[in-house]
Amino acid sequence: MVDFRISEEHEALRKTVEQFAREEVAPVIGDFYEREEFPYEIVAKMGQMGLFGLPYPEEHGGMGGDYFALCLALEELARVDSSVAVTLEAGVSLGSMPIYRFGTREQQERWLPQLCAGTALAGFGLTEPGGGSDAGATRTTARLDGDEWVINGSKCFITNSGTDITQAVTVTAVTGQTPEGRKEISSIIVPSGTPGFTVSRKYSKVGWNASDTHELSFSDCRVPAANLLGERGRGYAQFLRILDEGRIAIAALGVGLAQGCVDECLRYVQEREAFGHKIGTYQAIQFKIADMEARVHTARLAYYQAAALMLRGEPFKKESAIAKLVSSNAAMDNSREATQIFGGYGFMNEYPVGRFYRDAKILEIGEGTSEVQRMLIARHLGL
């Protein structure tokens, strides 16, 4: 029989993060969101809890857990706020994971201890202006000049790239041509503060307002040749692997947001009265919330299965795409319904569902659009 119960260790972690999110994040995050301010104090506490090191071995300063542990933490954080959740998601699955997966021993020893401790963050520089989902259309270049890479180009929508604790950004760049005449794309670590590396002012965003997102530019930016991450010419393939894994993490975040909508509605409908009754007694409201819970349940099972396949070392590309697609849909649908249930209050930023609605849309875009997920699924069906 298939058993979907999680281990005692995973359940203990889930409860710990749930308590942290309710007691430490929920009371203050609305003010950070309104001010569009990065919550350094919350991120520091998350680091002290070991959340940034969850899937890494102790030799790198990690907690010795696994990727599923990270997903559980993301779900619980996103039940309260997605800005905090995506800071952790991007910090681990996109920031430090490429260094762990593909870095040399020296690169791992230099970067991972602080990244696992949460005292530093790293970014993932893939998307470019005009590129969008077509990551293979990379225009940023890097040429070898002696023992240095000289980088020119720009990246956009990069999370955790401009905070006071951002340590580095790993970028993809064209480093030559393959024998077949295609672009040779490699990954290179660029430390923060490197001359020629400019972080533009933060974006004015619709959602995720308490997270850090910037456009980056590189003008004759020189970094040591030793900053090449992994094998030259394998950067694109490496980042595709990272995105496959990251889709499971972002799916967990989407499930958390969708579950948060259910949580908030269950509290509200037992307090709010209309036409002489608590609105939770009306079948129309009950059916809405029942559908919301069904979406959460389905999406959670999808990311659980994708994570299980990944941890067993089995192919999981299709399943991670399904999980990301289903959870994104659940987050969007549930946040829309929650806003409707709350009525005018749902349109106010002081209520979490207002933030949930604003935060949900990016889940259909970031780390692979819903259209890209459908394309990946169709390919695995032989189409």
TrEMBL record:
Protein's UniProt keywords contain Oxidoreductase: yes
Acyl-CoA dehydrogenase/oxidase N-terminal domain mapped to chain residues: 7-118
Similarity-based family: Belongs to the acyl-CoA dehydrogenase family.
GO MF terms, alphabetically ordered: acyl-CoA dehydrogenase activity; flavin adenine dinucleotide binding
Pfam (any one): Acyl-CoA_dh_1
Protein's name according to its UniProt entry: Acyl-CoA dehydrogenase
Location of the Acyl-CoA dehydrogenase/oxidase C-terminal domain: 233-381
Cofactor requirements of the protein: FAD
Stored InterPro entries: Acyl-CoA_DH_CS, Acyl-CoA_Oxase/DH_mid-dom, Acyl-CoA_Oxase/DH_mid-dom_sf, AcylCo_DH-like_C, AcylCo_DH/oxidase_C, AcylCoA_DH/ox_N, AcylCoA_DH/ox_N_sf, AcylCoA_DH/oxidase_NM_dom_sf
Keywords: FAD, Flavoprotein, Oxidoreductase
Residue stretches making up the Acyl-CoA oxidase/dehydrogenase middle domain: 124-221
UniProt superkingdom: Bacteria
